[in-house]
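re: ur question from yesterday

yeah so i grabbed the chain u mentioned. its 466 aa long if i counted rite. heres the sequnce exactly as i have it in my notes:
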Amino acid sequence: MRETIRVRTAAPLARDLARVRKLEALAVRVSSLLSMEGRTGRRVTALLASLRPPELAAVFRLLPPSQRVKLVRALDPGRAAEIIEGLPRGLRREVLEGLPLKEAAEILRRLSSDDSADVLLELDPKRAEAILNTLSPEERERARRLISYPDDTAGGRMATEFVTATEDMTVEEAIEHLRKEAPFAESVYYLYVVDKEGRLVGVLSLRELILAPGGAKLGEIMRRDVVAVRVDQDQEEVAKVVAENDLLAVPVVDQGGRLVGIVTADDVMDILTEEAFEDLAKFAGAEVGLAPLWSAVLRRVPWLLICMVGELLTGRVIKGFEGVLRRVMALSFFMPVIMATGGNAGTQSLATTVRRVALGELSYVRAFKVVLRELGAAVILGAFMGMLLGVAGWVWLGSTKVALVAGAAICGAVVVGALQGTVVPIVLTRMGLDPALASGPFVTTLSDITSIFIYFLLAHAIVGRM
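ran it thru and got these structure tokens back, copy pasting raw so excuse formatting
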């Protein structure tokens, strides 16, 4: 049985390794072709024809930097756009700023509207303006409108390629209309029904449309209770709407209820990934992404100062119990483990609570239940850790009182640390602040102060006169 488990586990790893080696070998062949003089575009295109967009982007990244722009120029604009879509921001900017203006504009035309807006925002403003000036007035107006929305809103995430119909269309007419318009849409999961002013009044899934009688009017069969988001709605709220309603795409409307775009499920995946990385960076008191040097320094300094001040306070607490520590030097042996365990307990509760906040699971009643649950878990864990450390201390030092102090202190540190990790993000949420601000450094430092205070308070009470 164990043999079988090992084989099943190793098989995906072996396939991934084989795939990586295949792409590396392909990159070597592409590099060789690009190094040759003359027209090599057709040979490169033929070599890469069977690759999916993520594999194409992977081959691009494996090439030497000097050949990356050559590869983009060797491919047709459609395939080049597939590479651009799969690249991180820094590389996208590098490529598009290395291309002639007309070629960069042609690739931009092949991108979906939301991706093209993202790319324009990443470029140098002068370069972006020059590319915009090569577009048609209609394309330029659409691009300018999209880049005017904040990046973290539904407007900044939406695509403007979608298919609409009117209420008086029959099902047969709508299907024919869909066939004509679908090639130009971002994705076709739903048919949106609008009135003469472009206001969203109904929606039909493709399944509902196909199964409906051919002569039925859309106004008779459409769903009127459309789930939609506002153009200025925060991207995290958009992701929640899509997840809660099991949607493949959500329509975006302006203040007048007019349909202006859609946010698709793949965009939601990007949002969730970015939000997760952002929260992780906040937990660590660091910046999100590859920020400029001084920006990174300024972002990290406040948290380091908080940690430093906090640990100085911890030192002040220790100094306040200097007499106890001098009389029983063995107490110093347990300080690191008590502080570390309390900090870890706080971080665990913090991660759990912030996740619940992100999922919108913390109403007033649920918040109280979460606190009780974390408190219960902390008491059990604290008692367990306290028994372990107490026994270890007694075996190590042979002192019942010191072992009792260490065991009781680590129990208290776990309980208090867990409460801090739970209550702090809940309080920040109630204050309208981002709970991720209750980052690891903050909660850990707060836990250090309280843990060491509990430890020496118990020590003073139990072994202070030894």
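noticed a couple things. Residues 164-274 form a domain with the CBS-domain fold (CATH 3.10.580.10). also The chain has three domains: 18-148, 164-274, 287-462.
anyway ttyl
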